[in-house]
Amino acid sequence: MDNKFSSAIHALILISESEEPLTSEKIAGSVGTNASYIRKIIGLLKKNGITESRRGVSGFVLKPKPEDLTLLQIYQAVNKTEHPCLFDLHKNSNDKCIVGYHIKPVLNGMFAELEDAFARALAEKTLADCIRGIRKRLEAET
Amino acid sequence: MDNKFSSAIHALILISESEEPLTSEKIAGSVGTNASYIRKIIGLLKKNGITESRRGVSGFVLKPKPEDLTLLQIYQAVNKTEHPCLFDLHKNSNDKCIVGYHIKPVLNGMFAELEDAFARALAEKTLADCIRGIRKRLEAET
How far apart are CA A61 and CA B16, in angstroms? Predict the structure, then answer.
């Protein structure tokens, strides 16, 4: 597990809330990491149509509206996978044993169902929800 | 990610379906691993009241009924945690930036909600469901 997902959400909130395209250096300053790590993440987001660069301007902008960008899309982009992978199935079960022979397809099916449920929960949340959460805390402060 | 969870389910199906207490050596033979790895897993299951040993008999037996044993209980036991941890939050966000300052509690809350949804999905499945899946495949074969 790494923190690419949470760093990507942080970067996208900054990009979305900024009035000007943001550079990787500025984003890295807020996320608390280095610019090359941010460029790596933004590269993955760009590949998935989440951010874009504007010709002649340095920095990145958000392509979809925050309310249309789900956490699932961000998760898929930074993890380079369509389907979240939350389980590791043991590979060497003994095919000569009835349980050992049949367990792989049974657990694969069951794990896929659980991963689908997780993906649906991720798809129900958007970048706009994260931004709203931060705004609420700001309002409560004042 | 390791395969303790899927190995534990495999071991528990064997223990549940066996008419006699099963030793770690026999379980390891079907799971395709070594007996000490199985003993480590069974130790975690025993600590959580999932398996037990019978006095004077070598081997392990299942304590709850398979229909009462949820995949969440198995997951919690082998991962030594009450709450599934699926996300890693970046720790060094800059407190001097508004987003950097407020993102931690916002993402912590959001990630906890997603982990809860995953836990609920795990709690809806039982060891009996896994056993049923294997029996169905066996019936389809004959």
Answer: 56
For range A66-83, the mean pLDDT? 97
Q: Distance, in angstroms, between A136 CA and closest chain B CA?
A: 10
What is the chain A residue with the closest CA to B130?
Answer: A106
C-alpha dihedral (A110, A111, A114, A119), degrees to nearest 10: -140
For A84-133, what is each residue's pLDDT tens digit?
A: 999 999 999 999 999 999 999 999 999 999 999 999 999 999 999 999 99
| 10-residue mean pLDDT series, chain B (142 residues) | 93 95 94 96 97 85 97 97 93 93 95 95 97 95 80
Chain A positions in Cβ-Cβ contact with residue B15 (cut-off 8 Å): none
With CB atoms and an 8 Å threshold, state whether A100 touches B125.
Answer: no
The alpha-helical segments, DSSP class H, found in A65-97 are: 71-78
In the block, residue with structure tokens 């056993």 = B131
8 Å CB contact between A4 and A78:
yes
Q: Is residue B53 within 8 Å of B43, Cβ to Cβ? A: no
Ordered by where they begin, the domains of chain A are 4-141 (1.10.10.10)
